[in-house]
Amino acid sequence: MRGRSPPGARYVSRRARYPAAVDYNQLAVNLLDAKSLISSLGAIGLIAIIFAETGLLIGFFFPGDSLLIIAGVAASSAASSVLGEGNRLPIATLLIGAPLAAIAGAQLGHQIGVKVGPRMFDKPESKIFKREYVLKAEEYFNRFGPGKAVVLARFMPIVRTFLNPVAGTLEMPAKTFFLWNDLGL
Known about the structure:
Elements: H1 14-17, H2 24-27, H3 34-55, H4 64-74, H5 79-83, H6 91-121, H7 131-144, H8 146-153, H9 159-169, H10 174-184
Helix pairs in contact: 3-4, 3-6, 6-9, 6-10, 7-8, 7-9, 8-10
């Protein structure tokens, strides 16, 4: 009696037994498109990106400025027309989470600079962490003062990522960096 259902059993179609196939195109996230990032990752993803952009030295390619603008739209009543239904972000999460993530990320970047900065920037074959960048940053620090340099860097993409470890490498005290970092946000 192989292949036959027991008496009284209902036939269940193959489609009902196995879930529908996943559309893998919907799982893809364009890391360089702010709208795609907000729609796919939501508020927690946005906060993680802000942290990575300011502190982990891997987020310099993220569209940070446009991401914040799209996040503001996503927290407004226009969210459904711009990002689609169900993509509205909670404003309280953004107002609290974004600055805290930026401050924490920058502090981590500074600590990375304190701990491994000299070794990181002394490699002659490095394409990203060059000694000349430290010398330029030091000149920038001397010309404008370290506080002004930290505050101004908050408004310059890429610079805001690399200035934090450079400040640690140049032995800017953590408390001073924290003060200027907070004022820059």
